[in-house]
Amino acid sequence: MTIHKEEKIWAGIVAAMVVVFLAALAYAAWVIGLQVPGGDVQMVNPQRALEELKPGVREVAPGKYEVTLIGKMWSWFPNKIVLKDPVEVKFRLTSVDVIHGFQIVGTNVNVMVFPGYVAEITWRVPPNAKGTYLMICNEYCGAGHQNMYGYVIIER
Ligand code: CUA
User: Fold this and answer.
1) CA 84 – ligand 1 centroid, Å
2) What Å distances lie between residue 61 and 90, 114, 128, CA to CA?
3) Are residues 24 and 58 in the same domain?
4) How many domains in the chain?
């Protein structure tokens, strides 16, 4: 049996493509590996999250807030957050049941909330931000998903 010249060429091209793909994969794994947060990811037992994380609003410095929120089918706890002259708000979120998605409509605050993990996202609040913002769940989480919303109220 003879192997045609064209077949050899194509076999060479395929082999080269496999090498390129594997190299790209290895490179991506290396880059992503560098970006994965290390041991500072906080974990929490979903059954004990409500007691351990103490949901609520804390002003840690003038204008700097830390807001701890729990996602539970189908609401956020607390579901009404009032902030006076906020500059920076660090949200800490977890879920006690399934995956939820936390989003404040009209802002860049958008993070997935997994049971067992504490997600963190910081909102640098624009000076002109004022009034009532809708916070929603943007990850389908069951029959009551559309009822899972609340409000962030910014007072100036
Ligand atoms: Cu929670 Cu959708």
Assistant:
1) 27
2) 12, 28, 20
3) no
4) 2
Strand partners, 66: 58, 90
Q: Is 141 in the pocket of ligand 1 (CB under 6 A)?
A: yes
The response to whether residue 113 sits with its C-beta less than 6 Å from ligand 1 reads: no
- What type of residue is 31? V
Domain interval for residue 14 = 1-36
pLDDT per residue over 30-63, tens digit each? 877 665 555 578 899 999 999 999 999 999 999 9
Q: Do 134 and 100 form a contact (C-beta atoms < 8 A)?
A: no
Read off the pLDDT of residues 55-92 as tens digits, 9 standing for 90 and up. 999 999 999 999 999 999 999 999 999 999 999 999 99
Tell whether 51 and 117 lie within a shared domain.
Answer: yes
150 found inside a domain: yes
